[in-house]
């Protein structure tokens, strides 16, 4: 919906400079078959609103089963996430531009969700210096694809110098 895309995002105070895409743009759709490392397609429980050219976010939640297998004791965090371009949809099968780099098991509640990233943006030849003790980053990319930070210096950073989340 073009009207929705034209709405400005609310300001953010997580970084001095933030490049942020729209993010999630649809419901979570469960996988109907395991997504295995190297696969270039996934089978979904239902396909609604996905078409070639869309971008999707895949996640396998950190379940108790997975945490036991990996001996992960952290009570929070996203560990098994991936983003990809849809190259085609045939029935409930969604083809992806690149192969999956990790496993997305059905038994862990793995799902796909449409995502709208910001693309082709960046910052170059810049120096940032934080003069107050603030818990913020220098440059942040959130849902950013094909973005860059070149020749950037961040002094006295409160959190991360340059950081990407879902980027």
Q: If you had to describe this structure to a student in words, what would you say it looks like?
A:
Helix content is 7%, strand content 41%. It is mostly beta strands and 167 residues long. Strands 2, 3, 4, 5, 6, 7 and 8 form a seven-stranded antiparallel beta sheet that branches. The model has no long low-confidence stretch (mean pLDDT 90). It is built from two helices and 14 strands, in the order H-E-E-E-E-E-H-E-E-E-E-E-E-E-E-E. The longest helix is centred in the middle third of the chain and has 7 residues, at 64-70.
What order do the helices and strands come in, and which of them pair?
Blueprint lengths: L1 H5 L8 E6 L2 E2 L4 E2 L10 E3 L11 E5 L4 H7 L10 E10 L2 E4 L14 E6 L1 E2 L2 E8 L7 E6 L1 E2 L2 E8 L6 E4 L2
Parallel strand pairs: 1-11, 9-12, 10-13, 11-14
Antiparallel strand pairs: 2-8, 3-8, 4-7, 5-6, 5-8, 6-7
């Amino acid at each position: 919906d073009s009207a929705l895309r034209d709405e400005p995002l609310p300001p953010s105070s997580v970084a001095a400079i933030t490049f942020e895409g729209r993010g999630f743009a649809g419901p979570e759709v469960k996988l109907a078959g395991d997504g295995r490392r190297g696969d270039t397609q996934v089978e979904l429980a239902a396909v609604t609103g996905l078409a070639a050219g869309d971008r999707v976010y895949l996640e396998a939640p950190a379940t108790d089963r997975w945490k036991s297998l990996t001996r992960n004791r952290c009570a929070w965090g996203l560990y098994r996430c991936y983003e990809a371009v849809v190259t085609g949809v045939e029935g409930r099968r969604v083809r992806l531009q690149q192969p999956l780099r990790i496993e997305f098991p059905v038994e862990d509640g793995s799902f796909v969700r449409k995502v709208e990233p910001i693309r082709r943006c960046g910052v170059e030849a810049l120096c940032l210096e934080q003069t107050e003790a603030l818990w913020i980053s220098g440059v942040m990319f959130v849902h950013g694809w094909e973005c860059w930070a070149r020749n950037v210096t961040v002094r006295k950073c409160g959190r991360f110098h340059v950081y990407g989340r879902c980027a």
